Amino acid sequence: MTAAQLVFKAPLVACSLGDESAAKHCNEAAESACSARTAPPRPRLSSAAGCCIRIRRNMMAAPGDQGELAKGKRVQPPWSPPPRTEVPKLYLYNSLTRTKEEFIPQNGRKVLWYCCGPTVYDASHMGHARSYISFDILRRILKNYFKYDVLYCMNITDIDDKIIKRARQNYLLEQYKEKKPSPTQILQDVLTARKPFLAKLAETTDPDKKQMLERLHVAVSTALEPLQGAVQGDAEGAVLEGHAQLLVEESKDLLSDWLDSQFGSQVTENSIFSTLPKYWEGEYHKDMAALNVLPPDVLTRVSEYVPEIVDFVKKIVENGYGYVSNGSVYFDTAKFDAGDKHSYAKLVPEAVGDQKALHEGEGDLSISADRLSEKRSPIDFALWKASKPGEPSWDSPWGKGRPGWHIECSAMAGSILGESMDIHGGGFDLRFPHHDNELAQSEAHFENDHWVRYFLHTGHLTIAGCKMSKSLKNFITIKDALAKHTARQLRLAFLMHSWKDTLDYSSNTMESAIQYEKFLNEFFLNVKDILRAPTDITGQFERWEEAEMELNRSFYNQKAAVHAALRDNIDTRTALEELRVLVSQSNAYIAGRKNAKLAPNRMLLQSIALYLTDLLKTFGAIEGAEPIGFPVGTNGQNVDLESTVMPYLKVLSDFREGVRKIAREQKVTEVLSLCDMVRDETLPELGVRLEDHEGLPTVVKLVDRETLLKEKEEKKKVRADSSYICQDRSASSWHLVAVCVAWLGESSV
After folding, report:
1. Any idea where the tRNA synthetases class I catalytic domain is (predicted)?
2. Is the distance from CB of 589 to CB of 552 less than 8 angstroms?
3. 617: nearest Cα among 295, 130, 145
4. Phi, psi (degrees; rounded to nearest 5) at 165
């Protein structure tokens, strides 16, 4: 042993002999030796250095640990973390690449999101619901599930060719009605208005538009005949007046177009053009609230941002991408596309030159021959339109005018979100030319190539397989849809389909959503009943057997599957299917425990129900603060009806169960019949379902009255059929027994 080794050994020997002072001096000597030694090769240097460190650790051990040190247990054993696993990433389908891309916000967890809002000139329809419910779901999931800090901005288009034309036509038609023209005059005016309409019908080639015009022609012709006959037959005034008013109503579209062509240029008061969009914007917000769509964080209106739009257009012109022509300003697509870092029509390059789409993008009032001749190229588009007679106008460096359609979103989004945003959303039909033009003019203004990082487009909505269009008068309003189905059922229907694919709004689609809602609701009601079973504070914690272990494994597996689905382009369709599997497994567990006359594990089922409820709240399918399940109550009631009435219902149920027990023992069938009547006739009218189970307590559930009454009618029908089959001797014996037993099982008697 070398001298140096002796020096290093000394502190350990001293410690083992209990001589702390000697150990201290030896330790100092060892440290001195460490620093004084001639540096050996690298491996030996490492060993010596480790020796010094171990000596210092040993000396820092508590006195009571010295015996352990003597046995060789001088330090804690080494620890190593588990293997690092890659954090799963979120992927979104990006229309800019037409593929799923990893979602990477520009600024940490902050997400800047702009969504194209409605053009408010008529009632909101299911096409609007398709976009806004879908984006509401995506927004809620990004914010509440993935925990992004989302700033959601949306616009209201309240200056637009459609609004101007509709406002003008409504105003002129009301003026016409107020003049109270005679039935003869009405007949003459409709016949005059029909001439240009028939010419338009003859030249229309689009099959959907032609079909719409033909329906209108039939309606007008049907209303014309009675009035023509009444006029020729010198009918009484009241009869003539009735036919005339019916004709005005059926031909209002024809009359409005004709009146607008005659007198539209004389409508100059700007307030006429603001009344219509203000009314329909209010209706839109009411519809969104009824659908449980969250309001945007920021709402912008075109009419409130005209100065910002003017400045935005000026900058584009200064950058060399816009030109003035006859008081209007147009975007120079050729100049922009020739730039090194710019590209026109990023979303749908194959659509460049589609004149039909381009004309729709410019608007009905902006595709006249004189307007089109102002452009350098047919694919250039208006940034600022010189106002013609009969149109609202604002001051600008180029004269009186109004904003183009596409420029509004660029200017308003730029004012709120800056030169680049993370997400831009809109309907699939807005990709070209609207969103492509937005991209071009914004990148021309900011001189960048990344105004939008991720473009999300919701799929089309069809009605029983047919195209839906407001312009074609083939649409269902949101109010009409809500009259047939609840907001939750509509949302579940959307959740059961991919947000980016076409959704068919049909009876089959809605029936699937209704059945899924019932499936979940029954599970929630069963869990609530289990949790209401009396127990003390310690009794709620029950021993886990293999059945609980298996269900818990399934629970974690399904949660992982849901998470994977949501990371994959927020695939709510797959997520809901995974939830269905989880509920089915839970139902099987509950049934197994009840068959064995054992109570299900309440804490495990509560955890599953809480998870399901929380996720459905994240999706926007559950409102309110109830921890488990769907709220009970109608007409927007926010009271916790269940916790209020359930104690009384439980008393009633227990009393009824006691009465049934005595009646069975005493064989008093009349009392048993009365108990059945309470269950089958009285309580369903109040929205209460009692479920009797042999050998188990009666289950009490609060269910909406309409559902219970429908179930009641279905049971009556089954009983009637069963009674007939029981008397049919030709029925097979097995079927006979099964049906009769099922029928008799409904009764306590």
Report:
1. 105-513
2. no
3. 145
4. -65, -45
**pLDDT over 80 at 338, yes or no:** yes
CB neighbourhood size of 664 (10 A):
15
Q: How is residue 150 annotated by DSSP?
A: E
DSSP one-letter string for 34-90 = HHHSPP--HHHHHHHHHHHHHHHHHHHS-GGGHHHHHTT--SPPP--PPPP-PPP--
Which residue matches tokens 């480790």?
Answer: 50
At 589-615, the pLDDT tens digits run: 999 999 999 999 999 999 999 999 999
Q: Strand ranges (DSSP E) for 326-441?
A: 328-331, 381-386, 401-403, 421-427
**Please, how many CA atoms are within 13 Å of residue 153, restricted to the half-sphere of its CB?**
21
SS3 content of the chain, % helix, strand, coil (to 5): 60, 10, 30
Return d(Cα 719, Cα 477) in angstroms, integer. 40
Q: Average pLDDT in the 433-449 region?
A: 97
Span 300-314, average pLDDT: 98
Residue position matching structure tokens 């809480």: 610
Cα-flanking dihedrals φ and ψ of residue 101, to 5°? -120, 145
Element (H, E) at 718: helix 705-727
Angle at which helices 207-232 and 183-203 cross, to 10°: 150
Q: If 0-12 CB within 10 Å is exposed, 13-18 middle and 19+ buried, where does residue 179 land?
A: exposed
**What integer best gives the mean pLDDT of the chain?**
87
Long-range contacts from 222-228, C-beta under 8 angstroms, 24+ separation? 222/250, 223/247, 223/249, 223/250, 223/251, 224/187, 224/190, 224/191, 224/251, 227/183, 227/186, 227/187, 228/187
Average pLDDT of the residues in 213-240: 93
Average pLDDT over residues 403-432: 97
Alpha helices in 571-624 (DSSP H): 572-595, 602-618
Cα dihedral across residues 318, 320, 325, 329: positive or negative: negative
The SS3 call for residue 732 is coil
Is the model's pLDDT at 665 over the cut of 80? yes
Gap between the Cα atoms of 655 and 660, Å rounded: 9
Please write the tens of the pLDDT for every residue from 251-267. Answer: 999 999 999 999 999 99
pLDDT digits (tens, 9 = 90+) for 559-578: 999 999 999 999 999 999 99
pLDDT in tens, 111-135: 999 999 999 999 999 999 999 999 9
- HEC sequence for 297-344: CEEEEHHHCHHHHHHHHHHHHHCCCEEEECCEEEECHHHHHCCCCCCC
Q: Supply the pLDDT for residue 706.
A: 82
Q: What is the dihedral of CA 24, 25, 30, 31, to 10 degrees?
A: 80
> b/e string for 11-50 if b means 16 or more Cβ within 10 A?
bbebbeeeeeeebeebbeebbebbeeeeeeeeeeeeebee
* Cα 197 from Cα 258, distance rounded (Å): 9
Cis amide prior to 433 (ω within 30 degrees): yes
- How far apart (Å, rounded) are the C-alpha atoms in residues 605 and 611? 10
CB 104 within 8 A of CB 148: no
53 pLDDT higher than 60? no
Instruction: Count CA atoms within 13 Å of residue 444 on its CB side.
Output: 34
